[in-house]
Design goal:
Elements (H helix, E strand, L loop, with lengths): L8 H9 L5 H14 L2 H9 L2 H9 L8 H18 L8 H20 L9 H22 L8 H9 L3 H11 L31 H21 L5 H10 L8 H8 L3 H22 L3 H5 L1
Length: 291
């Protein structure tokens, strides 16, 4: 059986020492577990197949994940197989359990190999786990005098039934590990610059958004309170000149009011002074906010 580092010898020895089950014993245990949920029967059935879990987990030892985690996930698949196994079918439990064990381990590898989730479809999973093997097979074929592929990626795509673009994308993912945005840039230690510094978000921070919202509401309340000191004409001029999206011109506003544009300017300036004075008297913090 293939060895896998990171698993205690005692665990491997216990798995190897577990007795093999005959077809009759296996069938009897599976029936007891299915019909009466006999935990002892389940324990004997799964312990007898832990060597199978270790052997399958060993095939995935090159993905940089802890061996004990691979075995643990394989055990989860083994339990799932036991829950779904139909002892009345003419199939040995080991044959049935192999698929579930491998599927559980593959799913674990896909979830943890990279923070970027990928390989969710069956075709993508096949590409993830077979890309390197197929590349090695093509390379060996060329070394043995075989015909060199004009487009290796296209050949792999055809073999696995996926698009060539999927092969290119998966090769990029497998070319290196995830890169931390906190990792320093350059060879100089203590430079202070990290990869994340080059991906600055121009939008304001959440606390700035909240602060701006609160300040905006506060200024609006101050303004509405101060506007009460203005006369009706002063208020109309300020609203049409300063508080509307399309500010009215002095000349047009003077025509509406029946006065000269110079008189409109004088009234506007006086209204602004009155407004500023009222704001400072009623809200001393206004000077600090607008400074």
């Amino acid at each position: 059986m293939a060895q896998i580092s990171g698993i205690s010898r005692s665990f491997v020895r216990a798995a190897m020492d577990a007795p093999f089950l005959t077809r009759e014993e296996e069938h009897a245990l599976a029936v007891r577990w299915r019909d009466t949920s006999d935990q002892i029967a389940l324990d004997r059935l799964t312990r007898a197949h832990m060597r199978l879990v270790i052997a399958i987990a060993a095939r995935f030892r090159n993905y940089g994940l802890a061996a004990q985690d691979l075995v643990q996930e394989g055990h989860v698949g083994l339990l799932e197989a036991a829950a779904r196994f139909d002892p009345e079918r003419e199939v040995r439990f080991s044959t049935y359990a192999t698929w579930w064990i491998r599927a559980a381990i593959q799913d674990f590898v896909l979830r943890n190999w990279s923070i970027v989730r990928g390989g969710t479809s069956s075709a993508q999973k096949a590409l993830f786990f077979n890309l390197r093997r197929l590349r090695m097979r093509i390379a060996q074929r060329v070394e043995n005098g075989g015909e060199e592929s004009l487009d290796v990626q296209a050949e792999i795509a055809t073999t696995l039934g996926v698009n060539r673009t999927d092969v290119v994308a998966m090769e990029a993912r497998l070319s290196g590990p995830d890169m931390s945005m906190s990792a320093p840039v350059g060879d100089e230690e203590g430079s202070g610059a990290s990869r994340g510094d080059f991906f600055a978000d121009p939008s304001p921070l959440p606390d700035e958004v909240v602060s701006n919202h609160i300040d905006g509401e506060r200024r609006y309340e101050w303004l509405q309170s101060a506007l009460t000191v203005l006369s009706e004409r002063e208020l109309r001029i300020l609203r049409e000149r300063r508080l509307s999206d399309d500010g009215e011109t002095l000349e047009a506003l003077g025509t509406k009011l029946g006065i000269s544009k110079e008189r409109v300017r004088q009234i506007e300036n006086r209204a602004l002074e009155k407004l500023k004075k009222a704001l400072l008297e009623r809200n001393p913090d206004f000077a600090t906010v607008t400074a």
